[in-house]
Input
Amino acid sequence: MPAMNTDWKLNTPPESEVNVDADVLAMRAPLVRVHRNDEGTWSFDGPGRNPRPSKKTMLSAVVGAWPHVAALSDLDTGGAAVWSWKQHGWASEFKCECGSCEQPVAADIDRNSWPAELQPHSILSVEQVALSGQAPLTDIISTPGGIALLGPGDHRRSADLMTPIALANVIRRWPHTMQALRALKEGRGMRWNQQQLNWHEYVLA
Output
């Protein structure tokens, strides 16, 4: 990704080296906490205590694989943010002076945060290159045959390019998809807008 990419939201160059929780990188845990140390280096973690075993990659690769990270353009050196499943967005960690503040906790999604209208065990079809992070997730479509999550390109995919994933694991993989999946109607699609960092609905041709 070139440094002058006009869609780039973060104030750190896309080619910067970052640390990613090994479980997050292996898709075993959701990306729910982001921290920048005193030197400004980014770290991306799953639920639980830190530090955790991590691997190095480029910031552009993280943003491509986990688009909700692009919303952290205001995260300064030394700062940290936690994904809130209930608020459907990032919440800043802060130092509590009074001792009674409720700090955001980096956690996996639980039943209390799960929307009642979504069936966690229902199976969705996911394009493998998007699931692995090799290509960005760009579209969610609902057809009579079911719901599919796709990378760039038209909507035609052969079966060997897709893999079945439970809805709960789709949302754990891409936390920013929850609201789109709640609003998705049959015969419609949702496309991720990189500039506005939101989903746009459209009618399937």
